[in-house]
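Archive entry: two folds, one per protein. Generate the first.
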Amino acid sequence: MKNTINPVLNLIKDNVSDETEQRKAVEEVVTKTMLICTMLFNAAKNHYEKINPRIKSKFLQDYVNKGFIIKDTLYMLGDEVYALFGESYSKLAVDAWKLGVTVHVQLFGNFKDKDAHANKILMYYEKISKYDPSFERPKLKKGLFGHY
């Protein structure tokens, strides 16, 4: 799915000349992609949470890998919408980034390189807060006592 975002959005940009129709098409791509990402993440999370606790740790990496792909897809979706269609489509980009941050934060405790992931989450937080100042800064624990 991630590999189709740029080509699909470029097809819309290059072939849908009516601005209203173009916006509708981009909105549909963003909405459907976010819906699919939400469904896939929820399925992965629910599956992982239902695994017998005695063997659950063997399946953690699979859950994290699936979530990682989903959050990257959402970040890319927002980035591509913003890059191709500009400021007037920022709400759509922000919606995708917000969902990406939500997924990323849920996975955060499972990453070894917390600094890199915290930086990425906070980078998207900054992008989002430029358009939605009410968006709450994610609470990320650095360790037992520290926060990012």
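Generate the second and append.
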Amino acid sequence: MVFFNLKKLEYAMQYGYMSLYTTYAGSAWASRMEFACQVSFFTGLAAKPSRKRLFWYGVFGLINPVIEFAQGSRGAVVTQSLFFILYLYSYSDIKKGSLTKAEYRKKFRRLFIAGMAVCAAALPVLAVYGVTRSGGVYAGPSGIFGKIIDFFDQQGFSFSLIGYAVKYKGQMPNCFYSFGALIDQFFAGAGFQGKEDFALHAHSFGDSITYIVAKTAYLNGYGMGSSYIAELYYDFGYLGIAAVNIGLGAFMKDMTDWKNRSVSGMLFLIPVFSGDSKRCFCTSVSKADCVFCNAYILFYIRTGSMEKVYGWKTDRG
């Protein structure tokens, strides 16, 4: 996987970051290797390694994300780092099985202080890098606090996407974007011919809305992403949003109450099945089918699929 990422880095350095989204032709083996590496990494963490092995898991688990960061992509290194910090926060609970309230409070205070320090140092850098990686010149706020706000502003397309879902309701090329990946998987036939064809005929809300709102930018590799709330509104209106979120809330409460394990203590199992740490942190800006996939993975764990591996018991009463 390192080899494929280094080749991709070489291409990005020669033709620019945006070329990775417009002209770069990746290898199918690279995708397979990426999935295998991620699943291997998270499976290792799920095996409750010793502290010495845990250190090397952290080192090797960040090699590819760091290379991707050099290419211009911030997502992998940020989500992998966040996930590893979350795992460290849960590590003693995983090893011991339970902690006292005093131990939890002490651990939380340490995590909070460390998190604030890391954010103050890293977020301004990421805000500037978000502009300069594609050859632009950063013209945002000069202060640290201003750059932190700017970083979050760069991520904040969800509000706009919901607004566009309201504005263009009933006017987009397709419907049922909430189940887009499933529909395209079984009914796309020979696939799609290029980005424009994908935007017009695939069931991808993010691609379609970006094409409608900013066609030139979309064809040059830019995208607005998606939001499961926007997709649900477009497909099912306010009732759809309410029904799904009530269901997700009830489900997450059940997961939280299960054997008094916190959701954060269980989420490290999601990437073992999905090969993607982003699923743990990007729910609000994920496609609806990704949110449903996360819920299915947790349900799979909840119903006892991990019992034979880890000896965890579930209450079937």
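Annotation attached to the second fold: The first helix runs from residue 2 to 15. Confidence is low (pLDDT under 50) at residues 259-266, 304-317.
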